[in-house]
Design brief:
With 256 residues, the chain is mainly alpha-helical. It is built from twelve helices and three strands; from the N terminus they run αβαααββαααααααα.
């Protein structure tokens, strides 16, 4: 499956991509019965018989795992919603939410602030990958690791788990969670180097990163909750403290 960013730029989703989401959310619901692609194709052709005959919806070819050419359709987001009537309420709602996120990506790619934050996030990812390549992998190999090549994947999966995002879906995140990823990846980059200098067992470094990552998230969440409960003048006061280093009570007297 292509990246969500590519799907959103086209403002369409293929029947294969839709099939993947349907089966993913069926599994999440506890339904082990997988929908077959040929069954979905028949549903599309029945639902959009007129549009297909008028060439408003056109079949395209793709290569399957055997290298054979198969047929699939590209659907607009509204057309994708339309063919979900046979799915359960839970699966339908989940895919509707997924499509809404794809539509949000379209808006994001026209938002300079989001684009800037995404670029920073990619730079933080590159920094972490460089630390893994230049420090952690050689350290693991020197200490007996036989599968150091999985290190990139393990740290990427850990960060996705901490932030609560599926693989290859970081383009769905808003600027706040992009910022969280930046902080976590920079934290991990520093921790890896620090733990290597200490001589920490390489097997313990990732658990340490996970623990510190959770601590960071808890701190950020508690700060957000605390700020959300402050009165307007208290929020201004708090920002003044963080940026200027003025004591809270002193600043409050000035406001009053």
């Amino acid at each position: 499956m292509g990246s969500l960013a590519n799907i959103s730029r086209q403002e369409k989703i293929t029947s294969l991509e839709l099939l993947e989401q349907i089966n993913y959310f069926r599994k999440q619901e506890g339904n082990r019965k997988k929908l077959r692609h040929d069954t979905l194709i028949r549903t599309i052709e029945k639902e959009f018989f007129e549009e297909i005959n008028a060439h408003k919806i056109v079949a395209v070819k793709y290569k399957d795992k055997k290298g054979e050419f198969r047929k699939m359709y590209k659907l607009t987001f509204n057309q994708a919603r339309q063919i979900l009537t046979k799915e359960s309420t839970i699966v339908r709602k989940a895919i509707f939410n997924y499509i809404e996120k794809l539509e949000e990506i379209i808006k994001n790619h026209h938002n300079p602030l989001w684009l800037e934050q995404r670029a920073k996030s990619k730079e933080a990812t590159k920094t972490l990958n460089d630390v893994i390549k230049d420090y952690l992998i050689p350290y693991k190999v020197a200490n007996g690791s036989t599968k150091p090549q999985w290190t990139y994947k393990h740290y990427s999966e850990l960060i996705n788990k901490l932030v609560g995002v599926r693989s290859k879906e970081r383009d769905l995140l808003d600027t706040e969670r992009q910022d969280l990823i930046i902080k976590i990846e920079l934290l991990f980059s520093n921790l890896i180097i620090e733990e290597i200098k200490k001589g920490t067992n390489y097997k313990d470094i990732q658990p340490i990163c996970e623990l510190r990552g959770n601590e960071l998230i808890n701190i950020m969440n508690s700060t957000i909750m605390r700020l959300a409960n402050l009165k307007p003048y208290e929020k201004e006061n708090n920002l003044y403290i963080n940026n200027k280093g003025v004591g809270k009570n002193e600043n409050r007297h000035k406001e009053i």
